[in-house]
Amino acid sequence: MPTAPPQHQRFVLLDGLRGIAALFIIQRHATALLGDELPSSYLGVDLFFGLSGFVLAHAYGAALADGRTSTFAFMKARLFRLYPLYGLALFLMAGYFVMLWMAGLPTPLDDLHRPIDLQELSIAVVTGLLFVPAPFSLTLNGALFLVHPAWSLFNELVANLVFGLWGARASTKNIVPVIVLSALVLIIAAVEYGRLHAGFRWNEMYAGMARVFFSFFVGVLIYRFRSSSPSLRPIVAVGCLVFVASILAFPTPKSLRAYFDVFVVFCCWPALLVVASRCIPGPIAGAISSFLGTASYAVYVLHVPLVAWTEFLLPQITDSRAVPYAGLAFVGILTVVCWHLTVALDQPLQRWFKNRWRKP
């Protein structure tokens, strides 16, 4: 079946929000370089899910709804969008663990620092290549994917499949129950775990799926009910960028994290998406947003292996006297490298794929 190309309007401010969230996710996984993790930074993942629902509803919703794009073609496009840089991250992560095994060193990415199990590593590589979770939590890193952040990508692909098969054509009254059910499950997860930082192990899978289905389909409905095209609002745009950074850096007390997380996911992120989707930033904020948005996916998927390799090859940067300055320099260099990888490697591959995809 011939397929319609996605819509090309770019919501630049949304790119900036995604980029800032990706930088905060680095901080969670680079505590040896940057100091203690910020207690609310994991909520950036829920923002990712909401942004994805909005953007995919814009890019593919109409074409999926009227049959110009098939679900198979949509999922093929989604996999190819994710896979090149994910494949690079998987290669780097597998190489890192092989290197540790050859050196006789335990994994530093799991709390118990257990020795490298080559059989487990082989299983993790195979399931990783298939983009599915391992059948057990890995002792290598305590997660279901060798590339730890891939748990959220897998969950999003599940939501994408549901969107392609049903959601793009479903009415609002049919989508709302999915959102309500997901919200109830999120409340259960918040009570069980004391926060919404869950979803990357099998016993937490229900929480991860609730996180993606709630925020993704909220994003879809926000796109459907947008009231106007974006307009130039430079002050509001800067306020949106500051707001997302403030939420992710907020020092939430442990006793209040469950309430704070639910409030942010249920109220703050949807409201932010409504406002930010109507704003065009000024030239400086727009340039920063465009740069961060271009780099954001590569930053998200590559930061764990690059942090691991950097700490192994340059252990002196984890010295207490270098923290957090060396870490901040690392984040800056990582972001620039990821921008170049996106522009020089990923975007040409995406263009090649789209050109082949459009052929009958």
UniProtKB/TrEMBL annotation:
Boundaries of every Acyltransferase domain copy: 14-338
KW Cell membrane (keyword) present: no
Keywords annotated in UniProt: Acyltransferase, Membrane, Transferase, Transmembrane, Transmembrane helix
GO molecular function: acyltransferase activity, transferring groups other than amino-acyl groups
Pfam family, one: Acyl_transf_3
Transmembrane segments: 42-63, 83-103, 175-193, 205-223, 235-252, 258-277, 284-302, 322-345
Keyword Glycoprotein: no
InterPro entries tied to this protein: Acyl_transf_3_dom, Acyltransferase_3
Coiled coil: none
Protein name from the UniProt record: Acyltransferase
